[in-house]
Amino acid sequence: MELSSMGDWCFVLSVQDITKFELKAETLLTNLLLEKLYSMESEVEQLRAELAAAVRGNDILRAEVQNTQDDLSYATHKLKDLELQMLKKDENINCLQIDLEESTKQLTIMPKVSGDRDMLWERVKQCSEENMLLSAEDNILKKKIEALEEDLLLKEVIN
User: Fold this and answer.
1) Alpha carbon of 11 to those of 2, 4, 21, 24, 25: distances in Å?
2) What is the 3-state secondary structure (H, E, C) of 94-153?
3) What angle is formed at CA 69 by the lines to CA 73 and CA 57, rounded to 5 degrees?
4) How far is 37 from 136, CA to CA, in rounded Å?
5) How far apart are CA 92 and CA 3, in angstroms?
6) For the chain, the helix, strand and coil percentages under 3-state DSSP, each to the nearest 5
7) CA angle 51, 57, 59 (to 5 degrees)
8) How far apart are CA 83 and CA 157, in angstroms?
9) pTM of the full structure
10) pLDDT, tens only, 13-65
11) 159, containing H or E segment
12) Dihedral of the alpha carbons of 27, 30, 32, 38, in degrees to the nearest 10
């Protein structure tokens, strides 16, 4: 009986040891799982923080894209406005070139017109001089006619 009681005692120790080992194993497993859970919670928090940063970054990029699109729209509008201004300036340049060509044609005519004007002015001066001479001659002839009329009257009175 001694053997069996000793064997029983060994068996009980064995069961107690196994139970202790199982309890220690479960405690270790529980601690390991808790650490893993804390680690995963920490990872989740880290991922949430990264996600929040990514969302903020995405919002910032969307705002920058919108600003860039607005700037592009403004630049496109400004470019079209400048193109219209260029067309108007080109049109004005064409009008000025036409005016310049007409003025150049008139300038080529000007020496002839100027020469004709000078010739006519000389002719006017000559006619004025002739008119003055004829006027003086007319006055002289009028005086001679008066003198002749007086002589005629005197001869008639004498006769």
Assistant:
1) 14, 10, 15, 19, 20
2) HHHHHHHHHHHHHHHHHHHHHHHHHHHHHHHHHHHHHHHHHHHHHHHHHHHHHHHHHHHH
3) 165
4) 139
5) 127
6) 100, 0, 0
7) 105
8) 104
9) 0.44
10) 578 888 888 999 899 999 999 999 999 999 999 999 999 999 999 999 999 99
11) none
12) -140
Residue by residue, DSSP assigns 64-103 as: HHHHHHHHHHHHHHHHHHHHHHHHHHHHHHHHHHHHHHHH
Using CA atoms, how far apart are residues 53 and 36, in angstroms rounded to an integer?
25
DSSP label at 110? H
